Amino acid sequence: MKKKFTLTEIDCANCAAKLEEAIKKIDGIQEASINFMAQKLTIECDEDRYDEILEEVKKTVNKMEPGCELVSK
C-alpha cells in the first residue's frame, strides 16, 4: 500500500534526509521518501498493519522533528 502525506514545519534538507532514513527502519515499511522542497512524504507499507505503522511513523516524526505534523492527503 502506498500513501502520501504532507509534512509541515520541516526546516532543512538534512533533517528531512535523517527523518526519511529513520522512517525506512520502521518494521513494515518497504519504502519511504521525503521530497523536502514539496514537503511531501510517501510511504509504502504492509496494508494489513497500516494503522500500527502510521502510528510509528507519527511517533518518529514527532520525536525527530518536534512541531512537524504529518497530514494525510
Number of strands: 4
Determine the N-to-C terminus distance. 14 Å
Instruction: Work out the helicity level.
Output: 25-40%
Which strand order spans the largest sheet, edge to edge or round the barrel? Answer: 2-3-1-4
Q: Please provide the ordered H/E string of secondary-structure elements.
A: EHEEHE
Cα shape:
globular
| Approximate strand percentage | 25-35%
Kindly name the structural category. alpha+beta
Low-confidence residue ranges = none
What's the overall average pLDDT, rounded?
95
* CATH C-level category: Alpha Beta
Main sheet characteristics: 4 strands, antiparallel
Find the CATH topology: Alpha-Beta Plaits
Helical element count? 2
In the CATH classification, which architecture applies? 2-Layer Sandwich
Whole-number count of domains: 1
Overall radius of gyration: 11 Å
